[in-house]
Amino acid sequence: MDCQASLLTPTKPGGIGTIQITGPQSKNILNEICQDIPKNLPPEKIFYTSIYDDKDLIDQVVISSTPELNGYKIHCHGGPRILQRLLMIIQSKGCDILRWQDHCIPNSLEEEILYYIPKTSTTLGVKAISSQLTDGLGYWSRHAIQAIRSNQYSESKLSDEINTILASQHQARILLSSAKVAIAGPANVGKSTLANQLCGHTQSIIADMEGTTRDWTHRLIDVNGIPVNLIDTAGRRSSDDELEQASIRLSEDILHQSDLILCMMSITEENPMEKIKAMIGNYQNTQIVINKCDLDESLLSNPDFVYISALKDQNLDQLRHIINDKLGFDEFNYKNPLVFTDRQRQILESVISDSSKNRVKLLEKLLDNNTEIQ
Questions:
Q1: Cα 305 to Cα 327: distance, rounded to the nearest angstrom
Q2: Kind plus residue range of the DSSP H or E element containing 17
Q3: In the predicted model, is pLDDT for residue 292 greater than 80?
Q4: Looking at residue 200, what DSSP letter applies?
Q5: H or E element: which one contains 232?
Q6: Structure confidence by residue, pLDDT tens digits, 34-83
Q7: How far apart are CA 8 and CA 18, in angstroms?
Q8: Residue 328: how many CB atoms within 10 A of its CB?
């Protein structure tokens, strides 16, 4: 049967659940499972009804029409069992059940914005994505269309601007899925204390003895608007404990996958420079953090290091700013163009490589995917 359905809301318990059903047979299926559905449900109207499985009442729902998708939305109670039962009933009528990702592919810049805003986890992320229609990518695209039509763009200027915009994909990825920031260093230098301070609560058990953290822990935090998956790794030290050795090896894998590594050392450490060089040698993006600076302030001399006291919450604001800078947000303006989907990237790359006659249509396609390219 030419009909598809998918659950648009999370599978976890919630107040309201929404099922999208589309296709030529969607109205017939609703007629089979609902009572008193009008023949033609106007797009601007909603309809309150009940859904039955044979004679068993499953739920009382609100139906709304989605003519642009040739279908309907069923808004019901958000309990997992009710949602599962409704999907099973719809499927039993010959409807294919799809993942919501396959059912709701954004087809314009506005739809992409609405689709991705719920995926952000910080206020800055919401501002950056929501600004892309009136400001950001939308504003730049409309301006570029006018400039191309009036021959105000040279080839090099257009390419340079697009390449600058394409570079924003790194920032978009972080805003939508978080940056991975790991804290690494020898045992007992205060890594877990720092993690707890940055998290704002006790995430890792701490004690004045080596090897307290034997496995990595992580927590999603907000660092000045940037979503950060903060990872507290096991301390590096020689150990005969097989479990601890396995944890240290796993920490190495995590460090190589991280966007930023906070290489942490205690100011009381012997031969700290040798240990620092050994620690940062294999990694791309690192920041040296010297902890327990309150114990000996005479040693605060290297401008490339961040000196903190995790226990006393000293200089942690400075560390947060440096984390933002190291992740590429030092000059970030949420109103600037931001490329946050593959569709946008592919279109902008095509604008650079395509002939000038198609560039306007490509940029119009960026704003609305229904534009046809000759």
A1: 17
A2: strand 16-22
A3: yes
A4: T
A5: strand 226-232
A6: 877 776 677 677 889 999 888 889 999 999 888 877 888 999 998 888 99
A7: 6
A8: 18
Q: Check if the beta carbon of residue 289 is closer than 8 Å to that of residue 272.
A: no
Predicted TM-score (pTM) of the model is 0.70
Residue type at position 120: T
Q: Per the structure block, which two tokens stand in for 159? A: 């390419």
Contact (CB, 8 A) for 307 and 267: yes
Paired with 61 in beta bridges are 49
pLDDT at 246: 62
CB atoms within 10 A of CB 268: 13
What domains can be seen in the chain, in order of their start residue? 4-103 (3.30.1360.120), 109-168+336-367 (no CATH), 175-326 (3.40.50.300)
pLDDT digits (tens, 9 = 90+) for 150-175: 988 888 899 999 999 999 999 999 99
At position 369, the amino acid (one-letter code) is N
Q: Which amino acid is located at 145 in the chain?
A: I
Q: Angle at the Cα of 256 (from 252 to 259), degrees rounded to 5? A: 130
